């Protein structure tokens, strides 16, 4: 009985300190779980992690990881930047100068990629990416220690982005120029273009009957109408 009275007294004290505590409705457990999940997703999207009540710690992204993400999303609108497939891995090694054609070749890059990735996966994570770079670093810089070699390779990649190739320029060819020069067309093809090289449209494809009354090829067509409709100037009185 004494314990029960103590509990009642404690409840009265808490109610006195927090008078609105009893008026707040209790929320279902499912809604509370949804709130925690939404907070976690929002913190991940903002690049923050919950380090305590009312505190958020920004996630630092290194220059190496930033380059990894840039190459991971290159050419793929659905990519998340968390994993890198073989094609972009080869492009990264080529664009950043890891492949030199001597100590490191494209074949070496493909072999290392197959070695570090999971057996059933087609991509590598950032951790596997660093392991692959370590393999290439020891092969590229044999005279240096493992850590020094990795540091040198990391420097080649940090801050880099995919190189976008320029648009291929059309090569002027005399054969193509002859085929596209309308001034050199003959026969029915010549009738489809005017003197400026612009197409006549339907008039160049269909024979339109001339109902003007003039002989075809007459150069002074329309001159008679101009004389007839010319206004007469009145003589001064």
Give structural attributes.
10 helices; Recoverin, domain 1; mainly alpha; two-stranded antiparallel sheet; 237 residues; two-stranded antiparallel ribbon; elongated
Going by CATH, the homologous superfamily of the domain at 63-156 would be EF-hand
Strand portion = 5-15%
Mean pLDDT equals: 76
- As residue ranges, the low-confidence spans are 40-57
Strand order of the largest sheet: 1-2
CATH fold type of the domain at 63-156: Recoverin, domain 1
What's the total number of strands? 4
| SS summary, helix count | 10
Which word captures the global form? elongated
**End-to-end CA span:** 139 Å
Question: Any idea what the CATH architecture of the domain at 63-156 is?
Answer: Orthogonal Bundle
Helix content: 40-55%
CATH class of the domain at 63-156: Mainly Alpha
Commentary on this structure:
The chain has 237 residues and is mainly α. The protein has a domain at 63-156: Recoverin, domain 1 (Orthogonal Bundle). It has helices at 2-17, 29-45, 63-72, 86-95, 106-116, 126-140, 146-157, 174-180, 187-190, 223-228; strands at 48-52, 55-58, 83-85, 123-125. It has a two-stranded antiparallel ribbon with strand order 1-2. It has a two-stranded antiparallel sheet with strand order 3-4. α4 (86-95) packs across α5 (106-116), α5 crosses α6 (126-140) and α6 packs across α7 (146-157). GO terms for molecular function: tubulin binding. Residues 1-59 are annotated as: Disordered. It comes from Seriola lalandi dorsalis. Pfam families: p25-alpha. Keywords: Cytoplasm.
């Amino acid at each position: 009985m004494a314990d029960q009275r103590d509990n009642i007294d404690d409840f009265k004290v808490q109610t006195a300190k927090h008078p609105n505590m009893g008026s707040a409705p209790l929320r279902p457990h499912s809604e509370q779980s949804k709130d925690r999940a939404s907070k976690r997703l929002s913190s991940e999207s903002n690049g923050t992690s919950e380090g305590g009540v009312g505190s958020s710690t920004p996630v630092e992204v290194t220059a190496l990881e930033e380059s990894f993400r840039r190459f991971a999303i290159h050419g793929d609108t659905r990519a998340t930047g968390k994993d890198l497939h073989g094609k972009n891995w080869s492009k990264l090694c080529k664009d950043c100068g890891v492949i030199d054609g001597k100590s490191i070749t494209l074949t070496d890059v493909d072999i290392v990629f197959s070695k570090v990735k999971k057996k059933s996966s087609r991509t590598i994570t950032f951790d596997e990416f660093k392991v692959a770079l370590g393999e290439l670093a020891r092969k590229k810089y044999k005279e240096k220690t493992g850590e020094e070699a990795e540091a040198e390779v990391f420097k080649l990649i940090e801050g880099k982005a995919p190189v976008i190739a320029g648009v291929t320029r059309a090569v002027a060819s005399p054969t193509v120029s002859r085929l596209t020069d309308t001034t050199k067309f003959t026969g029915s093809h010549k009738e489809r273009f005017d003197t400026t090289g612009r197409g006549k449209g339907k008039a160049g494809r269909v024979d339109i009957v001339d109902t003007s009354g003039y002989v075809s090829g007459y150069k002074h067509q329309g001159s008679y109408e101009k004389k007839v409709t010319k206004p007469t100037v009145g003589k001064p009185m």
